């Protein structure tokens, strides 16, 4: 068994362990404590290290631009296509799909295989492509989340003149965004991660090491899967994967590449699992909603459903990426990539047909859509 496969199995095992420990950690406050550690310490440390280790060169700017283009195209497709009424999905759950489906998490689902099968060169290109993805999941996604928050909670909407001010304040009030601003300032001054004394770097490194196990355990703890949810989530994952294959095929067609590792990189990178970072923004919105006083307020996002999407996305992407690399040079042929795109999009359509509006895949629970005195957090509204 290759080291990449071994590492992947160990990551999936952490999700299973978290799922098995649901009965041990079923108290809302205990789970909130784990989420706070992730969002306030582990995640900011990981982002800070990643940003300060970027070795960006102007002649390679096309790589992150293409990655960001994929995020934007996928966002537009999920947002604009009339899929919500077909499935009968509540608005707050469909917003979750719009946030998560365009995002990528190559660090957990893609980088180990690139390193194992292709080596350091393609891995460096993948890390550079992730810069464009980070712009989307860290900045654009947060802006979208706050826009929806104000739309769903009109009483909390600021005056027209204060919208920009309040948005900037909300941005800077989050630990994740604070470290992004700090990293950007340091990079603009020519400072890198090595500018810190070693004892500070060691502390940040140890905080970052908590990120992966805590996130995967938290995903397992938060899973509340039903067959109807699995069916609908996987239809969107098939759709996402089919569009990713289609975009990869177009890139291979218009930008002929003869280097096999690079060709495979173009195919596998968009197949990465959904990112956890948009969930961080959704959790921030949920915290704002929990502080709203007065009459019940509509929940912008369903955090339980978001966890289920993340839980399904990772094994789906890992299996697909492993199959791509295990197939040899099959996916270096543009026609084969387009064929796979067609197959996956067909599967997505078949699931849509099986999950027509008449079946009512999701039965809207009023508790999931409103804050009541008995329900303080979206995670209890399942």
Provide the fold topology.
Layout: H1 3-20, H2 28-52, H3 62-80, H4 84-87, H5 91-100, H6 106-109, H7 111-117, H8 120-152, H9 163-172, H10 175-188, H11 198-209, H12 211-222, H13 227-254, H14 260-268, H15 277-290, H16 303-326, H17 334-354, H18 366-369
Can you put this structure into words, describing what you see?
Helix 2 packs parallel to helix 10 (175-188). 42% of the residues are buried. Mean pLDDT is 79; it is low at 357-382. It is built from 18 helices and no strands. It has helices at 3-20, 28-52, 62-80, 84-87, 91-100, 106-109, 111-117, 120-152, 163-172, 175-188, 198-209, 211-222, 227-254, 260-268, 277-290, 303-326, 334-354, 366-369. The protein has one domain (3-356): Na+/H+ antiporter like fold (Up-down Bundle), CATH 1.20.1530.20. With 382 residues, the chain is mostly helical. It comes from Ohtaekwangia kribbensis. The chain crosses the membrane at residues 6-22, 34-54, 60-78, 94-115, 135-150, 171-195, 207-225, 237-257, 263-284, 305-328, 334-354. Keywords: Membrane, Transmembrane, Transmembrane helix, Transport. This is AEC family transporter.
Instruction: Give the ordered list of helices and strands.
Output: HHHHHHHHHHHHHHHHHH
CA gyration radius, whole angstroms = 21 Å
Number of helices: 18
Q: What kind of sheet is the major sheet?
A: none
Low-confidence stretches: 357-382
What is the total domain count?
1
CATH architecture: Up-down Bundle
Assign the structural class, choosing from mainly alpha, mainly beta, alpha/beta, alpha+beta, or little secondary structure.
mainly alpha
- How many strand units? 0
Described by the principal axes of the CA atoms, the overall outline is globular
Termini gap: 39 Å
Q: What integer is the average pLDDT?
A: 79
CATH C-level: Mainly Alpha
Strand content: under 5%
